[in-house]
Write a structure and sequence with these properties.
three-stranded antiparallel beta sheet; alpha/beta; 6 helices; 238 residues; binds 6-phosphogluconic acid; 27% helix; six-stranded parallel beta sheet
């Protein structure tokens, strides 16, 4: 693999300014990918942090006909379940922008973890390299559905596997580190003081799952001041 780049840390005042900057960075990446390859493969993260970003992104002048939307992970629930990452993305972004159904690649978690992982691996085969992977950071240092001590962390071949979360919904499907680290860019979007200790730990080089995200492409940590409070120097201001 190519040399690992060191992360770019961007610190903004609050969650809303982080969401605005993140939406701008996604727009810029989409324009670059569309110019260079005619298509932009965007991987959405789950949880609650991305909602603000995705809503902001729906207002950006993205060339949506050139975008393919994927998911970094999913809970094994129905797509209309309140815990579904797809449902969150549909409400915050997908229902607000002009995307054909075949441009949105949902992880079919309702099929169960192993079958959903196999189906998604097959679907991803047509896109060997993803352009931008959005990621969050869990309080235990997990990212996507790659959890501390989970066997999924050691997956070296498959791009999609089943995993188990310590918190419900326990059955998950997730991109693996090989899939994430083969991307052109990975961007963590993290806000709030509750994440500050983990942000500092990961950026200091810990071996937590989030610390193992070292793409051969660009790595960006986009955080608010609260989440950066334990980072020496609090990163480079925008
Ligand atoms: C998920 C996410 C997960 C999330 C972190 C942070 O399915 O839960 O993929 O990795 O990004 O747990 O979640 P919050 O943004 O809700 O803090």
């Amino acid at each position: 693999m190519g040399d690992r780049v060191s992360p770019t840390l961007l610190v903004h005042e609050d969650a809303d300014s982080v969401a605005r900057r993140a939406a701008g960075l996604v727009l810029r990446a989409s324009m670059r990918a569309a110019d260079e390859r005619g298509e932009f493969c965007l991987v959405l993260s789950g949880g609650s942090t991305p909602q603000r970003l995705l809503t902001r992104l729906s207002d950006e002048p993205v060339e949506w006909p050139r975008v393919q939307v994927f998911f970094g992970d999913e809970r094994c629930v129905e797509p209309d379940d309140p815990a579904s990452n797809y449902r969150m993305a549909r409400e915050a972004l997908l229902d607000r922008v002009p995307l054909r159904e075949d441009q949105v690649h949902r992880i079919r978690g309702e099929e169960g973890p192993e079958r959903a992982a196999t189906l998604y691996e097959e679907e991803l085969a047509a896109w060997p390299r993803l352009d931008m992977v959005l990621l969050g950071l869990g309080g235990d240092g997990h990212t996507a559905s790659l959890f501390p001590g989970g066997p999924e962390l050691d997956e070296a071949r498959r791009r999609v596997v089943a995993s188990r979360s310590p918190a419900p919904p326990r059955e998950r499907v997730t991109l693996t580190l090989p899939a994430i680290n083969a991307s052109r860019e990975a961007m963590f979007v993290v806000t709030g003081e509750t994440k500050a200790a983990r942000v500092a730990e990961v950026l200091a080089g810990s071996d937590l799952p989030a610390g193992r995200v070292r793409p051969t492409g660009r790595l960006v940590w986009l955080v608010d001041r609260a989440a950066a409070k334990h980072v020496p120097g609090e990163g480079r201001l925008p």
